[in-house]
Write a structure and sequence with these properties.
Low-confidence stretches: 239-261
Number of helices: 9
Number of strands: 9
Largest sheet: 9 strands, mixed
CATH class: Alpha Beta
Strand content: 15-25%
Number of domains: 1
Helix content: 25-40%
CATH superfamily: Spore Coat Polysaccharide Biosynthesis Protein SpsA, Chain A
CATH topology: Spore Coat Polysaccharide Biosynthesis Protein SpsA, Chain A
């Protein structure tokens, strides 16, 4: 039986990340499904397929192999499909690792999103509250917008959009003690490989930054927030209830975000 939370992980050139991520699932007692999205032109395709064969018996783990669409394109393609079957959708990079805690991270995600449309993220030990580099949201957000991130983006600035959506909806939660560690070169936790060089090149930074500002300031964000606010209002019986912009939980006690009366 499928779980109600799917985490989508686009991955390229890092097949070694697959067993590490599955081990992190085991170490945290996570039951969420995980989908590894692999490009068919990846030079490491054979290694990914070997992992897929080895993990065939793990009902949580799935693989999809397809044309390269870059991170945002791949995420959107799979998220739109999955929104029909899952109540909650998450994104992690292949350099994110959930860490053990008193309550499994995926259980906290479900609890925080159980009250209706919303977004939740944890502490990546790099950007913290400033940016949701890994994220989870209710699937009705994806169904409403037709994507999980603005399609004009390629690799960067998706997290800025998720922050904009959550704040604009007044339905975002940051859990400081839910650690989804980001093993990024900027944190000194990974070597600068070809994937990082391509994603963080000056050309990509310029392109994605321009696309983000055009989305934010050119009417795209406003149009999406109008749809999302209607979604929230509908979940509250037709009246948009004012709420916190960001709920920050720094304790060890899980906090559910629930509908307000």
């Amino acid at each position: 039986m499928a779980d109600d939370l799917l985490v989508i992980i686009p991955t390229r050139g890092r097949p070694q990340a697959v067993p590490e991520i599955v081990r992190a699932w085991d170490d945290t007692a996570a039951t969420a499904d995980v989908l590894f999205c692999v490009d068919t032109d990846d030079s490491e395709l054979a290694a990914y397929k070997q992992h897929a064969a080895e993990m065939k018996g793990d009902r949580r783990v799935r693989f999809v192999f397809g044309k390269r669409r870059r991170l945002c394109g791949t995420l959107n393609q799979q998220a739109v499909k999955a929104a029909k079957s899952y109540r909650f959708l998450g994104f992690m990079g292949d350099d994110h690792r959930p860490r053990p805690a008193a309550m499994p991270w995926d259980a906290r995600v479900r609890e925080c999103l159980s009250g209706g449309p919303g977004i939740v993220y944890g502490n990546d030990l790099l950007m913290g509250e400033r940016m949701p580099t890994a994220v989870a949201m209710t699937s009705d957000i994806v169904s409403t917008l037709g994507y999980m991130a603005p399609p004009a983006l390629v690799h960067l600035c998706l997290d800025l959009c998720w922050l904009d959506w959550g704040k604009g909806m007044q339905r975002i939660t940051y859990l400081d003690d839910m650690v989804i560690e980001h093993l990024h070169p900027a944190a000194g936790k990974a070597e600068l490989d070809q994937g990082y060089e391509e994603a963080n090149s000056s050309e990509q930074v310029t392109t994605d930054s321009a696309a983000y500002y055009d989305y934010r300031d050119g009417g795209g964000l406003a149009a999406d927030l109008e749809k999302l606010r209607k979604l929230v209002a509908y979940s509250h019986g037709g009246a948009l209830t004012p709420g916190r912009v960001t709920a920050t939980n720094r304790s060890e006690t899980p906090e559910a975000v629930t509908k307000e009366a």
